[in-house]
Amino acid sequence: MRILTSGESHGEYIAAIIEGFPKGVLIEQDFINHELKRRMQGVGRGKRMLIEDDKIEIVSGLRNKISLASPITVLLRNKDVKIFTQNKDELPVLSIPRPAHADLAGALKYKEADIRNILERASARETVGRVCAGAICKQFLSNFGIDIASFTVSVGEAASHIKPKSVSDIKTKVKNSKLNCIDITIEKSMIREIEKVGSNKDSLGGVTEIWIDGLPAGLGTFMHFDKRLDAKLAASLMSIPGVKGVEIGLGFDYAKKKGSLSHDEIYYSKAKGFYRETNNSGGIEGGISTGEPIIIRIAMKPIATLRQPLNSVNIATKKKEKAIVERSDTCAIAACGVIAENMSAITITESFLDKFGCDSLDEIKVNYRNYVRTP
Ligand code: EPS
pTM of the predicted model, to two decimals? Predict the structure, then answer.
């Protein structure tokens, strides 16, 4: 399976093409719109989210809602269109890069004098296309009881220490949250932090945790470095704009502990097969899923655009100036969780299709059942 997205933040459309998706999968457009709506929400989101309604059209790859195995094309029309492919727009040239955005690195790389031509594609708006593809993959995975959820662990200094039991536990607890949080007490401190930095024209990041339940043991492999499931998940999550850290299971805490106190001992029962009573590995050993839930945390840096801008240099004059101010979010950690769920769904689907075949759902189901039958 291959996925392409296209589109600029203020261009006419965002598009996603999913090639190599199996035949016979029921795809509900409403579910994709539901995931897109979740991506728009959360305290700290910017005014753009009030302009857009982020509803999709699927223009190829399905017949009567069922996938045909041909490339699936999803289109989403932006409402806030400022740049055009054919007509001339009147936008001024932007020449003062924002620290922490792609502005300067992109302008240097592409020898570009107008930073608008960099930031339009570098904008996190592109993650709309990834959520569309991920929401299609989530619907494929649901045929095998695989489900994914996320929750906000911390925002600035406000951190929750509550541990969920499962994906369905997370889903129940975040239902009425304004920040995709399972801890309503700490959520209040998180919201206060976001409001405080917002009124100081500043920005914040945070940490979000992703859980994947229902995976069989055996996805991914150590046989080659680029097929390790942990490496694939880390790469796909690190590709989300603003993400600067990924840890699986105990992650960085492993480095502080003895092996005898950190490795997950192995048990067997007739009813459960092989199982563990702890899950410090985060559900992956040797680059392969163990059958325990996959647990990953990602850290997002503060949003790059500051309404009280940092020092920068005008790329035309080379003089010191304050960075440009574009409309932006104060904190996007809740949205980051939704994007991370959908990026994980893409990666898990890729490894699932590698293991069980990729042409039709019926064939994949037969292969899956044969595989899981023998422990
Ligand atoms: C975003 C849309 C963008 C930004 C944000 C994410 O819209 P606009 O630039 O029109 O306000 O709100 O992008 C960034 C934070 C960024 O740094 O690029 C979206 O749809 O997620």
Answer: 0.97
